[in-house]
Write a structure and sequence with these properties.
By secondary structure, the protein is mostly beta strands. Helices cover 0% and strands 70% of the residues. The radius of gyration is 17 Å and the shape is elongated.
């Protein structure tokens, strides 16, 4: 489990003066787990949530298989 901050920059692509706009600081919370099948192979699942003070909370889920050398 982990927690931290996330800084998002608003890119103004369709404005009269394109470029980086105002940024927003949000929280980032992660819960992860893995299961080792054999000495070298494992599977991992990770859930990330970006926590905002407005209506843009985001969930991102990663899943994968890994090989340990």
């Amino acid at each position: 489990m982990g927690a931290g901050v996330y800084y998002a920059i608003n890119e103004n692509e369709h404005s009269e003066s394109p470029g980086p706009g105002a940024g927003k600081v949000s929280g980032l919370v992660t819960i992860a787990g893995s299961y080792r099948f054999t000495q070298h192979w494992d599977a991992r699942l990770e859930w990330n949530r970006v926590v905002t003070r407005y209506d843009r909370d985001t969930d991102v889920i990663f899943a994968g298989v890994g090989y340990r050398f």
